[in-house]
Specification:
heterodimer; A: 608 residues; mainly alpha; four-stranded parallel β-sheet; B: 115 residues; Fumarate Reductase Iron-sulfur Protein, Chain B, domain 2; 0% strand; globular; binds iron/sulfur cluster
């Protein structure tokens, strides 16, 4: 038997690793909620499993997503993950071919060079020797990049590398040692028995015989021990993401999604974070406000180690930029909300003081301005103007005594209270028999679309105006105005509405692109979701965004959210207008066709 | 007894020697901006909840400062966290954080997943 004592650390480490992973996965699996389990049961024996396998291969080994975002970083991850994977697979085949059986000692592949001491002349030996050396070289190149990244993250295009905890440091040191030690160990053996390839053999030929003899065994021991340390620290370090990410890909493909409450899936997600730090660079709290301990990577880490504080969980704009950037596709904002969840008192009602009477207004269309819009009355005026121009009969639902849509409560984790508000509004809405609800606030829109079970259509006013234009119910005058459009977080990343407002605006003026459009758009800083941030930080965020948006001095800075508008107006010398106001100003009135020429338009704008 | 239309009001003495004024200090650690409030009442004037009922954030604020916690939790539960107050506050008080932290301080309600 090919045996030497130095295989023990490796073998024991591997066994410990597998046991811990199985225990953890089982625990999390049992914590999955009913809906998640139902989907998994339904989809496990379908083609979804095959496509999950393909995706697992693509993401966990080749890291296609990181590659797309940052090729050098992608190469680093790929060379380490895929290189190591191939090293194991090819090594296993090599060992099987060499020993003529598929069931050779499991450690033979790992320590192959040591045991296969005679000159290699089994079938394919040359190919294997070359390939194994080549793979080792690839891994070492990735490792070199990883080391550079740790000390000089800028070279790899990352402004900030993640700060690590002690488990990470242990695992990382072991990981860094594994491959150089393997190289040295194989080289020393190659020096003695000439079984090396271009790399190990080449390096081995530099070793004097006696020296090689003295260091061979210690090096193999060191290699095995570094594997042991890595395996045993893996489940407690960030490298747990390697096995968990694979599991997560399967769970997702089978249809499990994050719900309102912390569940087993949340455990899978928080353990799938590789702490790559991409989300740090995406976060405006970092690059504008210089707040450096709350970003998703730290939030997820603290949650995983049960060290999360309410200050970290609440210090987030829920802007979704990190969710968009995360190469693992973690539902970061959703998890943040799960952590904010508060305890409930069964059967308690909070808003019985809101008297909900069935409305007598039976119209097809409801207009719900939203609390924030009530603080920007010009948007309401503009919408009234548009409704009348389109001859739409609407019921202005929250004109007098509006009830909040419930999203702010939910964002802060008061789920029960939020549901209470939802049921009040639902009663009101269904009593009107309307078919369409238009809201001026993206926050409300998201709430109506996702948290209400309404069987009527919900539109943000930008969608609604787009529809009116398409149906030729309103006509707009074209002008020469340069317009920059700021995507509100909840409308863009939140509801995936990017095109409609742009299509509307391009009917009245010329759209100017900025550095951060659509999916990359920035948060105005006024987000209600963050209850920790202090005013000065909020202003820094706003001013940075304004600087970027106003770079080309647009005539109008357009947005589609009352909160963005209110945030921007306070420190912008130019015009900030909601899309509804702009449209209202450029309505072409059939019986008043004299409004033409830029002068007229400017006058209207200024009188606004 | 004949109802004369008059009532005897409960004594409204605030004994500052026994009142819990530490609570406010504790809250200020979480919401430093609370200290800035000048009791102008703008928040209450715009409040969505106050539009329906007698909820008054400014009053809750004063009650909490003086350690008058009786009935305060029920009162705070009326807030919808809509955020209008925060936008109109001339002193940039983080009203919403103020409200829900007071509420958490008071009793039964807390974070489910954060210790
Ligand atoms: S949350 Fe996503 S982007 Fe952030 S460190 Fe983790 S894996 Fe990377
Ligand atoms: S949601 Fe926005 S504010 Fe919150 S951590 Fe992500 S990028 Fe930062
Ligand atoms: S508006 Fe601001 S300063 Fe005025 S009472 Fe309310 S919280 Fe205090
Ligand atoms: S957040 Fe609460 S206190 Fe403030 S305006 Fe809304 S309902 Fe009133």
């Amino acid at each position: 038997m090919n045996y030497s004592h130095f295989i023990l650390p490796f073998s024991i480490g591997a066994i410990i690793l597998f046991v811990i992973i199985i225990v953890k996965f089982t625990k999390w699996f049992r914590l999955l909620d009913r809906k998640q389990k139902y989907f998994i049961k339904r989809n496990i024996f379908t083609t979804k499993t095959i496509s999950a396998t393909i995706e697992a291969f693509r993401e966990a080994l080749i890291h296609r997503n990181i590659y797309k975002k940052n090729p050098l970083l992608g190469y680093m991850h790929m060379s380490l993950a895929f290189g190591w994977f191939l090293l194991i697979v090819v090594g296993k085949i090599e060992a099987s071919v060499y020993s003529g059986t598929f069931f050779e000692e499991p450690w033979l592949a790992i320590f192959f060079k040591y045991f296969a001491r005679e000159p290699h002349n089994f079938w394919g030996a040359k190919f294997f020797t070359f390939t194994m050396d080549f793979l080792l070289l690839i891994i070492l190149s990735g490792l070199a990049l990883a080391i550079i990244k740790r000390f000089r993250s800028k070279i790899l295009g990352l402004k900030k590398a993640t700060k690590h905890i002690i488990y990470d440091k242990i695992a990382l040191s072991a990981l860094w040692l594994i491959f150089p030690l393997r190289l040295l160990a194989e080289s020393s053996t190659a020096a003695l028995v000439q079984n090396g390839g271009f790399l190990t053999g080449g390096l081995g030929s530099l070793f004097p015989q006696q020296f090689a003899q003295a260091i061979e065994l210690p090096l193999w021991w060191a290699y095995s021990i570094s594997l042991f340390v890595f395996f045993v620290s893996l489940p407690f370090s960030r490298y747990m993401h390697i096995p968990t990410e694979v599991a997560l890909i399967f769970l997702r493909k089978w249809g499990a999604t994050e719900g309102e409450q912390y569940s087993g899936l949340t455990n899978f997600e928080i353990n799938s974070c590789s702490r790559c730090g991409i989300c740090i660079d995406a976060c405006q709290l970092n690059f504008s406000a210089n707040i450096n301990n709350v970003q998703s990577v730290y939030f997820i880490r603290d949650t995983r180690y049960n060290k999360i504080s309410d200050l970290v969980a609440n210090n987030c704009l829920l802007c979704g930029r990190c969710t968009e950037a995360c190469p693992v596709g973690l539902e970061l904002t959703q998890i943040r909300q799960q952590l904010r969840t508060k305890t409930e008192v069964p059967g308690k009602h909070y808003y019985d003081y809101c008297k909900v009477e069935p409305t007598k207004n039976k119209t097809d269309v409801i207009y719900f301005a939203g609390c924030m819009t009530h603080l920007t009355p010009s948007i309401i005026l503009a919408m009234k103007n548009i409704f009348s121009a389109a001859n739409e009969k609407v019921w202005f639902m929250d004109e007098e005594k509006g009830i909040c849509c419930g999203r702010p409560r939910r964002q802060q984790g008061f789920v029960q209270q939020s549901k209470d508000l939802v049921s009040k509004n639902t009663k009101l809405i269904s009593s009107s028999g309307a078919k369409l609800l238009v809201s001026s606030c993206p926050i409300c829109c998201k709430s109506f679309k996702e948290e209400y079970a309404l069987d009527i259509e919900i539109m943000h006013h930008s969608e609604y105006i787009k529809m009116l234009i398409d149906e030729k119910r309103i006509k707009l005058n074209k002008s020469e105005l340069n317009i920059v459009f700021h995507d509100p977080c909840e409308l863009g990343r939140g509801l995936n509405i990017y095109k409609q407002p742009r299509q509307v605006l391009s009917k009245v003026g010329k759209l100017v692109n900025t550095e951060f459009d659509e999916k990359d758009s920035l948060c105005c800083g006024g987000s209600l979701a963050n209850t920790i941030i202090e005013l000065d930080s909020q202003l820094k965020i706003r001013d940075d965004v304004l600087q970027i948006l106003a770079k080309d001095n647009p005539d109008v800075l357009a947005t589609a959210c009352p909160l963005c508008k209110k945030t921007f107006t306070r420190n912008y010398k130019g015009k900030v207008m909601d899309i509804a106001e702009i449209v209202s100003n450029f309505l072409s009135l059939q019986n008043n066709s004299k409004k033409e020429g830029k002068k007229e338009e400017e006058k209207i704008l200024i009188s606004q | 007894m004949k109802n004369w239309g008059f009532k005897i009001a409960k004594p409204r003495i605030i004994d500052l020697d026994t009142a819990n004024t530490k609570a406010f200090e504790e809250l200020c650690e979480k919401v430093p901006s609370a200290k800035r409030c000048i009791m102008c009442g703008a928040c209450t004037a715009t409040c969505s909840a106050a539009n329906h009922t007698s909820f008054n954030f400014r009053k809750c604020n004063i009650m909490f400062r003086r350690g008058q916690f009786e009935g305060l939790a029920e009162e705070l539960d009326k807030c919808m966290l809509c955020g209008k107050c925060k936008l109109v506050c001339p002193r940039a008080v983080n009203t919403r954080a103020f409200i829900y932290n007071m509420r958490i301080f008071l009793n039964d309600l807390n974070y489910k997943n954060i210790k």
